[in-house]
Amino acid sequence: MDKTWNNKAWFMVLPVLVLVAFSAVIPLMTVVNYSLQDTFGSNVFFWAGTEWFQQVLGSPRFWNAMGRNLIFSFIILAIEVPLGILIALNMPRRGWGVPVCLVLMALPLLIPWNVVGTIWQVFGRTDIGLLGYYVDRAGIDYNYVRDPYDAWVTVILMDVWHWTSLVVLLSYAGLVSIPDAFYQAAKIDGASRWAVFRYIQLPKMNRVLLIAILLRFMDSFMIYTEPFVVTGGGPGNSTTFLSIDLVKLALGEFNLGQAAAMSLVYFLIILLLSWIFYTVMTNREAGN
């Protein structure tokens, strides 16, 4: 029996396609256009070919910024994922404590990024900030403005405070979806707490942890607002990540061609690393 195809449904998604074209595709093509040309203003362009890409890929400045980004993302994942799982494991499963914990976990996620940066900018000051004041009173020489190590510690603590809740909520969603029959069987078998986590809870959280790791990696690798507000990329270039360096290149130096090429390389790196993360973790899940 022949099927009759109704293509009128495409008209339902046409507004979405138009919106995506204006909000994503057209700006992307503009960036590609700038990356292949040079301009001295007045909307006059000169063909540059791959010159800007060669400069970006051959620049130690670019690779140093990417190295800082990778180190930051690795530290963030190493802290936030285990910490988020630990907090989720200790949250109540029923009773009045559930909504209270969920609301408390969701609060940091509701704060705008620039406000988070401002909060920690004040929080880390040794004269009026709680963190800076008490660390200084403890005899520790702390100043995130002039010491690169202190700047890194401050930015990492800020991100952990802001985004660990996302891992907690996703992990908690995976935990509450586990049927009670699994825990009852483990109790009958006399399984330890570690065995329950290793063979029941962790496998059941694989999918949500994959989402959590992907989201946190992409967001931490693209981080801009929070460290820019707190440190401005300093002291020196110690917290100048790729996103901050890109803005400095485009707006500070007005080098639009090289900035466009750098943004495309930046985009491809994020896409590649995210694909690698996804492939490795899905293959591992399939193997289990």
Question: Could you characterize the architecture of this molecule?
Answer:
- The protein is mostly helical and 288 residues long.
- The protein has one domain: MetI-like (MetI-like fold), CATH 1.10.3720.
- It contains 13 helices and 2 strands; from the N terminus they run αββαααααααααααα.
- The chain has helices at 10-35, 51-57, 60-89, 97-110, 113-123, 130-137, 148-176, 180-188, 193-204, 206-221, 225-230, 242-252, 256-287; strands at residues 37-39, 45-47.
- A two-stranded antiparallel ribbon has the order 1-2.
- α2 (51-57) packs across α13 (256-287) and α7 (148-176) packs antiparallel against α10 (206-221).
- The longest helix has 32 residues, at 256-287.
- It starts with 9 loop residues before the first helix and ends with a helix.
